[in-house]
């Protein structure tokens, strides 16, 4: 593989991620003026929030990026720290713990495990306590990012944390997308589905949100903790029925709780009184990362085409076929082309007894490789395809994703036919990580501190775009 071509792909991908690094995003959206010990003004995305004498800023957060977001808030509002008027608590993964001055960074789950834990429950109780302790003149800054659903568990009294985790595992294994998962999870939680919003009723709450959901639906990101819930317990029951889970004996208490809540709960409304001083603001998303990656690709001499999926994508196999088809369509273009896309395909997991290691991105790249190996004669001489999670994680592995290029066969230990057979077997068993570990191509950037879905880079054309010479 040309070092220059792979370096270009990695540089473009990293530029997209750099554009959505949370510390800088938050720091540039907060401002402070006035005397810290008097009645200063905190400005959030251009809107002024005066602090009366004695009022506090309370920072709470949940998600993979919440620690870095809190660091940005501490930098922007440093004078309030000196005056003892800023404090807070954020739940984040153990591998994303961030040194903070006064906001407590709490490990809500271990690295590589996207399920709720008892530690997450303890941290969420502290978040709830801080919100409910706020006075009407205080300002609550809620820092929310992807992974917040698993990092802020607070189950309704009728079910246990273990049962809630079981529901999530069963839905994920059945191929439920993020919208379907969150529809169920937020009906089983005291903080999701508008729970944090209800806790802050009558108070000032500004949520700064780094979106990990395509299209940025506020009621879905981190299960919509700070917005009016547009789904109902009946919707959650329908999701369970759709995936054949409503009649399972081990979920009988979950189904009973949802049925009871569907009879007693009234839907939230954004117009309900007590929420006039609430704001929900998107500070970063997949589109922002795609646009930044496109700009970097053009600087390197590629003709860049960018696309951010507006909603959860189709099955991972269909996405792979579509992306690889784009290689063939660019064959006659005559210009080095960068096809940058963002999205999140759906993966249906193999049965546990045959399931291997991997995640959404390694599975996508593996299926794309299979398409390329089956149709090698139709493709141009030079291309590379990289897909990786912007958070640096891809399932419960140490990889963010994987990549391959036109010269993949020839570097491995086997013929094209043998590699194709191994790839097909790995795809059937969701064992893409093991496949790329053997043949090469795993991408391990480590935790990035952000999370805006997946970012994919497909370079087609000459080995070295003209602009690369000035790098």
Note down, in words, how this protein is organized.
It is a single chain. With 471 residues, the protein is α/β, with parallel strands linked by helices. It has 16 helices and 15 strands. The strands form 3 sheets. The protein has a 6-stranded parallel beta sheet, with helices on both faces. The protein has a 6-stranded mixed beta sheet with strand order 10-11-15-12-13-14, sandwiched between helices. Strands 1-2-3 form a 3-stranded antiparallel beta sheet, with no helix packed on it. Strand 1 (30-33) and strand 2 (41-44) form a beta hairpin. The two termini are 19 Å apart. Mean pLDDT is 90; it is low at 464-471.
Side-by-side strand order of the widest sheet:
6-5-4-7-8-9
* Number of E-state strands: 15
Low-confidence stretches: 464-471
The helix fraction, in percent, is 25-40%
- The helix tally amounts to 16
What is the general shape?
A: globular
Structural class designation: alpha/beta
- Which sheet architecture does the biggest sheet show? 6 strands, parallel
The radius of gyration computed from the alpha-carbon positions, rounded to a whole number of angstroms, is 23 Å
Report the sheet-strand fraction: 15-25%
Distance between the termini: 19 Å
Task: Give the key terms.
36% helix, 471 residues, alpha/beta, 6-stranded parallel β-sheet
